[in-house]
Amino acid sequence: MKKQELVQRIRSKRSFLCVGLDPDVSRIPERFSGDVLAFNRWIIDQTRDLCVAYKPNTAFYEALGLEGTRILKQTIAYIGNNHLIIADAKRGDIGNTSRYYARFAFDTLGADAITVAPYMGADSVQPFLEEAGKWTILLALTSNSGSSDFQHALQGDTGQPLYERVMRTAMEWGSTDNLMFVCGATRAERFGDLRRIAPDHFFLVPGIGAQGGDLAAVCTFGLNDECGLLVNSSRGILYAEDPRRAALDLQRQMDEALKNYAPKVFE
């Protein structure tokens, strides 16, 4: 999915919601009898008109073995072509290995995007960026508590935090048409700086809902003239008493935020 297609979907749905499809078998409602695919299809049916993207975390499927891969492929096929599909795999290895990771995500699974760890540098990321029409979503400032162990470390030669160096360096490898950044909602106070570093790139924002991220703060500082945000909710929707109502509540908040902070999206 090209950038302008994504922006158009955001505009038409008045939403930048990404639904995380991370099915924990122990938490799936009893009426599904542990049927992960049936549960996923139900969640998709409840939310497809309210979101612009889905993000299955591959670990939840890999843990189910070969059957899990089948479920993941069938889930992606069920979503179809009208949503950005993000394989949340956080890959990152030497170039030759990354090339096969890219092939699996994009060709075998049929995903539009994949999350990638930048620690091994340019040659580990480039194979993902070479895939025409696909997105690489690079970890920058993540939502987990341990992110401060490395991501905030100041660099001696520039004095900038490591996440800023990652972003500025990676922007030389890709463009706003194939490179996004993962920026966690639990670090909302940093979004002004993040947007200053990458004014035109899309950010994938986890951490809303169960992790306590502040949607209003993220929108205040993170929205740009093309929206520029994909805000993800996983557990907050999947295991809500009424998943559709939970998704609708977020969509309505996003609609209001777009009108207040990014009115040019609708021009």
TrEMBL record:
Its EC number is 4.1.1.23. Belongs to the OMP decarboxylase family. Type 2 subfamily. Keywords: Decarboxylase, Lyase, Pyrimidine biosynthesis. Coiled coil: none annotated. GO terms for biological process: 'de novo' pyrimidine nucleobase biosynthetic process; 'de novo' UMP biosynthetic process. It catalyses: orotidine 5'-phosphate + H(+) = UMP + CO2. Pfam families: OMPdecase. CDD domains: OMP_decarboxylase_like. The keyword Lyase applies. Residues 16-250 form the Orotidine 5'-phosphate decarboxylase domain. This is Orotidine-5'-phosphate decarboxylase. The keyword Lyase applies. It comes from the Bacteria. Pathway: Pyrimidine metabolism; UMP biosynthesis via de novo pathway; UMP from orotate: step 2/2. Gene3D superfamilies: Aldolase class I (3.20.20.70). Signal peptide: none annotated. One of its GO terms (molecular function) is orotidine-5'-phosphate decarboxylase activity. It is an enzyme of class 4 (lyase).
